[in-house]
Design brief:
Elements: H1 14-27, H2 32-37, H3 41-55, H4 61-75, H5 78-90, H6 96-103, H7 110-124, H8 131-139, H9 144-167
Length: 182
């Protein structure tokens, strides 16, 4: 049971109604996370704006989904792990083994692996990565634009991971639980 109420479009007013309506038009449905975020239209708008901006960035959808899977696994967010497993398979067309690898910040694709390694290093060091991590990423062909977007995607994923953990958002897709890291 969610700890933050989920606002249905029919019950929403003002900016929340406008934003939920935009999501419904864009996606065909409104994810439970967005319904909970609608309690703060500023939060929902911020999430939507950053998500939309990154969708038009240098990183392709497959790499954005890999990064989201790695973050959800690292942060142990069942809601996001479930959502990005579904999106990785059905939108990004990632094979099951690539979805599993992404959960461990790995990929069979060398460039994707470099992005995941960098993102994992940033997450684990809370942003205080050393020069070696950046040099290694650049040596693997990661561009400055991609480095910037790895940081931005990590920020977006931490926002959604933490929000859904705090909200205990009800899953709206088949549940995928994090691996036991204990």
């Amino acid at each position: 049971m969610s700890t933050i109420p989920q606002i249905e479009l029919a019950d929403a007013t003002g900016e929340a109604a406008k934003l939920l309506g935009q999501l419904k038009q864009k996606l065909g449905s409104i994810p439970n996370m967005a319904k909970a975020m609608a309690n703060s239209p500023a939060t929902l708008q911020g999430y939507m704006a950053l998500s939309d901006a990154l969708a038009n960035g240098a990183l392709p959808v497959a790499d954005r989904e890999r990064l989201a899977l790695a973050a959800a696994e690292y942060n142990r967010c069942t809601y996001c792990l479930s959502a990005h497993t579904y999106l990785g398979k059905n939108v990004a067309k990632l094979a099951a083994d690539e979805i599993e690898r992404a959960r461990h910040a790995e990929s069979s694709d060398p460039h994707s692996a470099a992005l995941l390694t960098l993102s994992d290093a940033i997450a684990r060091s809370r942003g205080a990565v050393d020069d070696v991590a950046l040099k290694t990423a650049r040596a693997a062909g990661v561009t400055d634009a991609e480095i910037a977007e790895v940081v931005a995607n990590l920020a977006l994923n931490i926002l959604t991971n933490y929000f859904n953990i705090v909200a205990d958002t009800d899953a709206d897709l088949p549940v995928v639980t994090p691996h036991n890291h204990g």
